[in-house]
Amino acid sequence: MNSSIERIYNGVYKENPIFVLMLGLCPTLAVTTSATNAIGMGLSSAAVLVFSNLFISMLRNVIPDKVRMPAYIVIVASLVTVVQFLMEGFVPEIYAALGIYIPLIVVNCIILGRAESYASKNPVIPSIFDGIGMGLGFTVALVLLGAFREIIGAGQIFGIQVIPANYYEPITIFILAPGAFFVLSMLTAIQNKVMNKAAKRPGAKQKAIKDVGCGTSGCGSCGGCSGKIFNIGEQEEK
């Protein structure tokens, strides 16, 4: 698989930041009361992810290792400020609905995590596609959560009444804080079920620990493969 397409696939499905990695749950649970809010937060975070990966990858050989995290935060904060001004100017309704969660994108662990684990160690183009993949994965997860919560909790989607009020009594708990946990757990369970089925299909790639490194039985006395068994997923990608 082409590496750029693989980065997008990993972000959307295989390493989805919400359903698989469980990152960025604070804004996820807070802003998904509607699908519209979810799209606003998802796309703004995706834009910051892509451009932060771009700049951090470009500057990875310039930023001193001892101050890399403060430097990442400065880059991300500058991008978030631009996004905040753009949203306030062009989509004030969504800006008002998201409120404090827009500035908090600065400390979103998805963005800082990808900056530290991927963009700071890889060239520009793969880092851009990594940001696109993770941003799309985050947006898809938010929209799914927001859509389910809005339909079940209000009988609406994107503010449009899709279930007539005469035939359906909205379950309002789903648009409250506990509902976010219920929907997240259900969607995560579905994701895990699908991934487990895919892993058990005939011909699926099964990577055993004995296949990592030299493949001998004397690993207990050999330090050559130390730490590699914890990066099986990364080795499969490469």
Automatic annotation (TrEMBL):
Its EC number is 7.-.-.-. One of its GO terms (biological process) is electron transport chain. Part of a membrane-bound complex that couples electron transfer with translocation of ions across the membrane. The complex is composed of six subunits: RnfA, RnfB, RnfC, RnfD, RnfE and RnfG. It is a multi-pass membrane protein. It is found in: Cell membrane; Endomembrane system. The chain crosses the membrane at residues 12-32, 38-59, 71-87, 93-112, 124-147, 167-190. One of its GO terms (cellular component) is plasma membrane. This is Ion-translocating oxidoreductase complex subunit E. Keywords: Cell membrane, Electron transport, Membrane, Translocase, Transmembrane, Transmembrane helix, Transport. Pfam families: Rnf-Nqr (PF02508). It comes from the Bacteria. Belongs to the NqrDE/RnfAE family.
